[in-house]
Design a protein that fits this description.
six-stranded mixed β-sheet; Endo/exonu/phosph_ase_sf; RT_dom; Deoxyribonuclease I, Chain A; Transposon TX1 uncharacterized 149 kDa protein; alpha+beta; 38% helix
Length: 681
């Protein structure tokens, strides 16, 4: 059941006109529950409360102000929520609800935070008591009168002890900070309201948002009896909330710690409680480690608090509150999902039209025995070796299973996995849902505005990752024989830095010999998204790969479906139409080894970056432009002119006209490329 909740520091409700404004806003938002802070009314009458909320189904609970300071009121629609319990504190009021729609029980706490350090400790104690009283999903909303992060203020400051304490409380209570949408601050003050801060926020337990798509938790692997349960019913697992047993074990340990003398029965209880507590602490650590993605830290170092903070930080950084797509601004989650999905569906769709034929091109080939060798049936050892070499903590795809599940349950599920690989080998196919993929947008920098400010990351299903890994391990054995030696990336034994150093040697050789030349730095625009699939298959065919291997590749790239994840919610799945990694291409420069021998270098490739050495003549750039045109016509790969440039070496006349032949800008030496400084004297 979806609920709309509003929290608002209204700074007083005594004024009748102000109450009308509040009521109008609440009516327009169509909320199921609203919480108002700083009512500044010591005793609120029923008439005053009803003037705040619309409808005859309004119900409420109050925390009266002290004089004209503070005051919190929680109001809800009785058609949506049934009140089950209330707890009133000095700075907060908590209500336990049951949803009328689905019967789910949850807790809401309205907060108006105090200013002094001593009173804040009182608020933290109140919240801790609520956490211990009710175990249901919990949401807190209100004005905490304190910031949590440095960027919660428009003026850069430092992390204070109060902020550290607030973060500690959030960690201890197992809460998640829900990112703010639509703006960065909730309060303004000072001279001309120049000071702005985020004092209001929602906090919630991870389970508060309700049922969500299945995701396997690696902490389940530490649960006693897990493997036995999987053997009988490995499609699902029922393990209670990780915190549910931990507090009870903690309580027993606390009791034992206070007792002066323990009986033998009590000693056994203490031992069992300690073992239970340690187990659940360990499981909690695994859970937060998985969420934090800090994979360089090992389990067992008791980094639960760190993992929790990192998970919260990642949520905050990656949260999307607004985005601009083709001049249209989107702010609602659903609108953002649809807008992004439509944009990427268009991006990943190929423009139909004529494609240049590459039938006349000559390419390096693998032998027939090598082609047959990578098409043999998949063995259990081959699959398991690939599986064990993969990181089990990586984010899962739409299937929800992490690789850790398959790694730890191998003996139970291996027959199904071997069957999947056998079907793929014999029939060149698998269940298409295995290739469903979540597309997540990660900010490249702070203050992202448009779609180009985000980097798309694909979250693949675990079984498809395994299949791709096995295929990658096979092609590694032969790929070095067919990929040009000018390509310095992705091939075992080749280093990108080597190519950058060679390019610097070319430039240095020109400068020492007083020669003029042009260095063209070319970048392929969205190479992995725009390549023509048929071009890719034709290239593999000319390289000597067999029909079965090419059939495997075609099925893998043609069955993928994407769903965009925005703030944890997926869009509809869409196909990647006829697009699937890259390429490149001519004055040859001779780098002299000695007086009798020279190495001719015409071009170098760095994944989707290409370096070409040309004569300082307009005709050379004209010919290069035509080569790039035909390359695009054949492959679908297009030069990104914004990231490409021509760099003159020596005093080159008419360099602007040369750059115009390609359509890119003019650079200059010295320049840095792959941590190497080119052309420095």
């Amino acid at each position: 059941m979806n609920l709309r909740i509003l929290s608002w520091n209204v700074r007083g409700v005594n004024d009748r006109l102000k109450r009308k404004i509040i009521k109008s806003v609440i009516r327009s938002q169509k909320v199921d529950l609203f919480c108002l802070q700083e009512t500044k009314v010591q005793v609120m009458s029923d008439e005053m409360v009803r003037s705040l909320g619309p409808g005859r189904f309004l119900d409420w609970k109050l925390l009266n102000a002290k004089g004209t300071a503070g005051g919190v009121i929680i109001c809800w629609d009785k058609r949506s929520l049934e009140i089950l319990g209330v707890e009133e504190g000095q700075f907060s009021i908590s209500c336990r609800f049951r949803n009328e729609g689905d019967g789910a029980i949850w807790v809401f706490t309205g907060v108006y935070g105090p200013f002094s350090r001593e009173d804040r400790e009182g608020l933290w104690e109140e919240l801790g008591a609520i956490r211990g009283l009710w175990e249901e999903p919990w949401c807190l909303g209100g004005d905490f009168n304190i910031t949590l992060y440095i960027d919660d203020r428009n003026r850069t400051g430092r992390i204070t002890s109060a902020m550290r304490r607030f973060a500690q409380i959030i960690d201890e209570l197992g809460l998640v900070d829900i990112p703010l949408q639509g703006g960065s601050f909730t309060w303004s003050g000072g001279l001309n309201n120049q000071t702005r801060a985020r004092l209001d926020r929602f906090l919630a337990t991870p389970c508060w948002r309700g049922p969500s798509p299945f995701k396997f938790e690696n902490m389940w692997l530490k649960a006693e009896g897990f493997q036995e349960l999987i053997k009988g019913w490995w499609q699902g697992i029922e393990i209670g909330e990780k915190q549910s047993r931990c507090p009870s074990a903690s309580g027993v340990l606390g009791f034992c710690g206070r007792s002066e003398e323990l009986t033998e029965v009590e000693l056994n209880q203490k031992k069992e409680a300690k073992e239970s507590y340690e187990k659940w602490v360990s499981m909690e650590e695994v859970h937060w480690r998985q969420l934090s993605r800090e994979l360089w830290l090992r389990e067992g170092d008791r980094n639960t608090g760190f993992f929790h903070r990192m998970a919260n930080a990642h949520r905050r950084i990656n949260a999307m509150s607004k985005i601009m797509i083709n001049g249209v601004r989107f702010t609602e989650d659903q609108d953002m999902r649809e807008g992004i999905a439509n944009a990427y569906q268009q991006l990943l769709s190929e423009n139909p039209g004529w494609k240049a034929d590459i039938g006349g091109l000559l390419m390096n080939q693998i032998s027939s025995s090598e082609a047959d060798g990578i098409e043999v049936p998949f063995s259990e050892t081959e699959i398991f070796t690939a599986l064990k070499g993969m990181n089990g903590d990586k984010a899962p795809g739409p299937d929800g299973f992490t690789l850790a599940f398959w790694q730890n349950s191998w003996e139970t599920v291996k027959e199904d996995l071997l069957g999947l690989f056998k079907e793929f080998h014999d029939q060149n196919s698998f269940i298409k849902s295995l290739n469903h993929t979540f597309l997540v947008l990660i900010p490249k920098k702070g203050g992202c505005g448009g779609l180009g400010d985000y980097r798309p990351i694909s979250l693949l299903g675990g079984l498809y990752k395994l299949l791709a890994k096995v295929l990658a391990n096979r092609i590694k054995k032969v790929i070095g024989k067919v990929i040009s030696p000018d390509q310095n990336a992705f091939i075992k034994g080749r280093q990108i830095l080597d190519g950058s150093l060679i390019a610097n040697e070319v430039i240095d050789s020109w400068q020492k010999r007083g020669e003029k030349g042009i260095v063209c730095k070319l970048d392929i625009e969205k190479a992995y998204d725009s390549i023509n699939w048929q071009f890719l298959l034709k290239v593999m065919q000319k390289m000597g790969f067999g029909s079965k291997w090419i059939g495997w590749m075609w099925y893998c790239i043609s069955t993928v479906k994407y769903s965009v994840l925005v703030n944890g919610g997926p869009s509809w799945f869409f196909l990647k139409h006829e697009r699937a990694a890259e390429g490149g291409f001519i004055k040859g420069c001779r780098i002299w080894r000695d007086r009798e021998q020279a190495v001719k270098v015409t071009h170098l490739l760095f994944a989707d970056d290409t370096i070409i050495f040309c004569e300082a003549k307009k005709e050379a750039l004209l010919h290069l432009g035509w080569v790039l045109f035909w390359f695009e016509a054949a492959s679908g790969l297009k030069i990104n002119l914004d990231k490409s440039m021509v760099i003159p070496v020596g005093e080159v006349d008419g360099v602007l006209d040369m750059a115009a032949e390609i359509g890119c800008r003019v650079g200059q030496l010295p320049t840095v490329y792959w941590v190497c400084l080119w052309g420095s004297k």
